[in-house]
Design a protein that fits this description.
The chain is of the alpha/beta class. Helix content is about 40%, strand content about 20%. It has two domains: about 250 residues, Aldehyde Dehydrogenase, Chain A, domain 1, CATH 3.40.605; about 180 residues, Aldehyde Dehydrogenase, Chain A, domain 2. α2 packs antiparallel against α4, α2 crosses α6 and α9 packs across α10.
């Protein structure tokens, strides 16, 4: 059994039984059958638009479910649902063109490139964006004709089942099926010949295990393994704007985002001004009940995650960091952690070595843009990067050399269906969203047909 808990107060929400072996076998067989006979492209387009309509029509109820299960402030939960709906619009608008056969000049023969689905994709998803993570990873796969078996994080099981209901109501059963499984049953599911590919979002520790297991079975994987993203503030940056953006990036979703600004690297000449501005912004954050519309920062998703972040903060301070804001212990029931900002003395401090997943920001002054780049690239991660400055040539120099799957200039890192999302290094491999995300779970099939001229008699 899995029990979900409201992280704002520690109260039990619901209990869910594990999917039985028999039920899992039936669900997998149905997913295979649906994948073998996908509906036509036009019908898929209509269905995806209907999913968008249902998301918008039920946005209030779905947002409340997110907030109850993982503590996201309700306004941010509503924004998550709206983003899922907009992504449905994006793919519905482009699906016919995306899947149209492409002619290739291979004269004297006829050449084409066609996009075919792979089959059943096992999606192992995290809790921090319980709807968005599924839609950004799996909607492109469904759009091209795959089916999905969803193993969501335990603490958002209600959200996982709600996602399935959306797809069941529009496509019918089998296109997206949510399964409730303990960890020891996931490996055998990866091994199952009926599973064609695996998508995983989560820690690089677990991701390496998932990738290795799928690799032994020679199955395609997309791994989005988080990050410790650098946020570079150069000497010519708009400091107030950069500070406000750093607070939004680091503390949105209570700091529980893979592409949050986790390592804030600031040129020394503007460091004091930037730190003061960031502290001022932190002091204005509305902290409290995530169900209230004005709340900007609520509890963390689980108590064990809160405790791990406390360990990381204590180790960072023991390593010489100075607490600039927050840092106190919050003793109220639930998974509360105050927004906290520390100044680290060097890159050896834990907050610059490990990924911190919660409302803990770390800032480090550096002597120059060259040192900022070196610090940014000192991490094992490489998911995203945000650069703040005014010199186009200098920014282009950094953009071309920073180890990151995405670079955002004078704006925070954020996913968008029009752009691919994914990392390098320990942040994983493969891409989600845009055309590139759809192609990750496609058989890009080349077809060459010989044309023989008939000799005259």
């Amino acid at each position: 059994m899995i029990t979900t808990v409201d992280p704002a107060n520690g109260k039990t929400l619901a209990t869910y039984p594990f999917t039985s072996e028999r039920a899992l076998a039936e669900q997998l067989a149905r997913a295979v059958a649906v994948a073998e006979h996908p509906v036509g492209v036009a019908e898929r387009e209509r269905a995806i638009r209907q999913v968008a309509d249902m998301l918008r029509a039920n946005a209030g109820e779905l947002s409340e479910l997110i907030t109850r299960e993982m503590g996201k402030p309700i306004a941010q939960a509503a924004a998550e649902i709206a983003k899922c709906a907009a992504t449905c619009d994006y793919y519905a608008d482009r699906l016919t063109d995306l899947l149209a056969p492409r002619a290739v000049d291979v004269l004297p023969d006829i050449g084409q490139i066609r996009i075919r689905p792979l089959g059943v994709v096992l999606a192992i998803m995290p809790w921090n964006y319980p709807f968005w993570q599924v839609f950004r990873s799996m909607l492109p796969a469904i759009a091209i004709g795959n089916t999905v078996l969803l193993k969501h994080a335990d603490n958002v099981t209600g959200c996982a089942l709600a996602v399935q209901r959306l797809f069941d109501d529009v496509f019918g059963p089998g296109v997206l099926t949510s399964v409730v499984l303990p960890p020891d049953r996931i490996g055998p599911l990866i091994d199952d010949p009926a599973v064609a590919a695996v998508a995983f979002t989560g820690s690089n520790r677990i991701g390496s295990v998932v990738g290795a297991r799928a690799g032994r079975a020679v199955k395609k994987t997309v791994l989005e393994l988080g990050g410790s993203d650098p946020f570079l503030v150069l000497a010519d940056a708009d400091v107030p704007a950069a500070a406000a953006a750093a607070v939004r990036s680091r503390f949105l979703n209570t700091g529980q985002s893979c592409i949050a600004a986790k390592r804030i690297i600031v040129e020394q000449s503007v460091f004091d001004e930037f730190a003061a501005a960031m502290i001022g912004e932190l002091g204005m954050l509305a902290i409290g009940d995530p169900a209230l519309p004005g709340t900007e920062l609520g509890p963390m998703a689980r108590v064990d995650l809160r405790d791990e972040l406390r360990r990381q903060l204590d180790a960072t301070v023991a390593g010489g960091a100075e607490v600039l804001f927050g840092g106190e212990v919050d003793a109220r029931p639930g998974a509360w952690f105050p927004p906290t900002l520390v100044r680290v003395p060097d890159i050896a401090c834990l907050a610059f070595r490990e990924e911190t997943f919660g409302p803990l920001g770390a800032v480090l002054p550096v002597a120059s843009a060259a040192e900022a780049l070196a610090v940014a690239n000192s991490s094992v991660y490489g998911l995203s990067c945000s650069i703040w400055g005014q010199d186009p040539a200098g920014i282009e120099y950094l953009t071309a050399r920073v180890a990151a799957g995405s670079v955002f200039v004078n704006r925070i890192s954020e996913s968008d269906p029009r752009l691919p999302v994914g990392g390098v290094r320990a942040s994983g491999h493969g891409r989600e969203l845009s055309t590139y995300g759809a192609m990750e779970f496609a058989n890009i099939q080349a077809v060459r047909t010989a044309v023989h001229s008939r000799s005259s008699r």
